[in-house]
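Per reviewer request, we include the raw input and output of the structure prediction for the construct analysed in the revised manuscript.
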Amino acid sequence: MEPILTPQEASDLDRGAQARGVSAADLMERAGRAVANATIEVAGGVYGRRAVVVCGRGNNGGDGFVAARHLARRGMRVDVIAVGTADAAFDDGPASTNRDRLCEEGLVAVPWEATRAGRALARADVAVDALFGTGFHGEPEGAWQDAIDAIDASPAPVVAVDVPSGVDGATGAVLGSAVRAHLTVAFGAAKLGSVLLPGAEHAGTVRVVDIGFPDDLVRPGIGLTDRADVAAMLPTRDLQGHKRSSGVLLVVAGSRSMTGAPALIARAAGRVGAGLVIVATPRDALPAVAAHVAEAVFLPLAQTDAGTIGAGALDAVLDAAEGAHAVAIGPGLSRDDETARLVRDLVARCTTPIVLDADGLNAFEGDVDGLGRRAADTVLTPHDGEFGRLMLRSASEMPDRVSAALALAEASHAVALLKGARTVIADPDGRARVNPTGTPALATAGTGDVLTGMIGGLFARGLSGLEAATAGAFVHGLAGRRAGATLGEGTLAGDVIERIPEAVGSVLA
C-alpha cells in the first residue's frame, strides 16, 4: 500500500525527522535536487533547454530555489521568479538561505511582474511550480492567482512541487485557479490533495521520491492501493478443490421490474472465481434472470403483490445463507416497505458475511446504527446518494471523501466502500484506502451491481471484508478501463464483466 499523507501528517513527518537529527536544510536540499532531476527528465535534457522556476514563500519556495540552483549547475538556462518573498516573513530560515545561494550559479530571484514572467514562460521548455505547499486551502488571489494563470497559459510542461499550487492539500478541492502539472514530485509520500479528485487531474503523474525521512515515521492511516497489494490478496484454487470449496455466494436481489441486477451480480461473482452462485429472487422474476445466467442455481422466493421479495421469504433465505460463504443483498429489490423490513430482519439475523448495496442500504435509511448490531463481517457499498440516506447528510458536507468513508465505517462498524470518482474504502479501525483504477467508462447503469458481485465473490472465496472491497474495486476499475479502451462510451456493465478475467490476469502477471 502506497502511503498518502494529509497536510497535518506531512507537517508531523517534517518535525519528526528533524527531531531525529535530519535538518530542515538537508531535507530542502534533497527535495530541490529531486525536483531538478525530474525537471531535466521532463525537458528532455539540459542542452539548449530553458526552465522557469516560480517560487513562493516557505519551504515550497525554498525547494524551488534549490532546484533552480541545481538546474543551472547542470547547464540549463534558468529564470527564477519569486512571488511574495520580499516581506519580513521571509527574512530567515532555509528557504531564505537558498534564495541567497542562487548567486553561486549567477542567478537572482526576480520579483513577480506579469509581463516579464509571461515572456519568460512563453520561451521556456519546462516550468517548475514551487508556489504553495501542502497546507494550502481556499482560493488564490492577486499575484498568486496571476502566477498560476501564467504557468497554465505557458506551453511548457510543468513540474509541481509536492502538490500543484491552488489545489487544497487536504481535500483535492480546486476553488479557483490551480496549476495543471505534467508531473508532481512528492516527498516521502503522495499527498491526499494530489490523489483525490479534482486535485489528481491537476497533479498529472505523481512521483514519490525519498529525501531522507526515517521509514518508520511514514505510517499514515491512508493508503493508495497498488497492483502488488491486490496480487497478494487474490485467492487461488486448491488443486483438489471443488465448486463449494471455491466459494458459495448467495445473491438476494431483483424484483419483477428489475431482473438485470441479480444476473449482473451472479455473472460478476463467477468471473472472479466464485465456485457456486445461488440467486434468490421473487418467483415472477426468476425466468428472466435465469435466461441470462446459465451457471447459477436459483431459489424462487415468496413475493409481494408488486413482485418484490415478501416477508414470507425470510426463513428460506436464512436457510440458504447458512450454506453460503457470503451473501450479496440489495440491487433491484425496490424500496417496497415489506421488502425493506425483510432486508432489515435478514441483516440482523444472518450470521454469514454480507455485502450490502443499493436497496439493501436504502432499507436502513436514517438508521446506520442498525447495521452496527451485526456480529459477522459486513461491507457497505454506497454511492453518494445512498450515503446521504444512511447518514442523513451528504458526502459533500464532509471535508473529503476519505473522511466520509471513515465516518460511515465508524458509525456502522462495517467496511465502507464509497463509490465514485476515486472510490474510497475504509474500515472501523480508522484505515482507509483510495482506489486509483476508476474510469468514466464505469459511469453507466449496472456497473455498481457488477462491483457488488465481484466483492461478494471474493468475500465468498475467503477474503476479509476489507480485502474483498479493496481487491474488488481495483479489479473492477481495471476491467472498466479495458472495456472502455475498446468500446468507449458504448461500454455496458456486461462488457465490464467479460473483462474481469483479463483484469485479474494483469494483476497477477
